[in-house]
Task: structure prediction
Amino acid sequence: MEMTAQERRLSLGAVMLHMLGIGLTLGLTFPLTSLTLEAWGSAAWVVGLAGAMAPLAILLFMPVLPSVAQRLGAVRAMMLGCGIGIAGLVVMYLVPSASGAPTAAAVPSKATPIVPADPQDVPVNDDISAVARNAVSAR
Result:
């Protein structure tokens, strides 16, 4: 089935918009995932491995993606890919990791305050104790 010039432009625009969304999503999720894993106390190798998963998945699935897009259609294939990505992010927060990361349900009950109520409770090095106590006291 031949497409008209307008249909080609609209298709190209849709693909470009989708790729922009994917680029923004990857650009945001890589650093946020790393920061989240670090906050959960994950080992550095776990953080690095998690950061390598998306590029590795792209390399592994690139050979089969054209046949998936041909079989499902481009729009359905893109929706499936987005759904898998969203599911992966949701699962990350719902399933505790091997490093003891809290589940989403446990976070509010086990959360510790970021700033201690008493500035004297702040553990600081001797070299920066005055600066740190002044910064905490100012809050």
Summary: The chain has six helices and no strands. The two ends are 66 Å apart (CA to CA). Residues 106-139 form one domain. Helices lie at 5-39, 44-61, 65-72, 74-94, 107-110, 129-138.
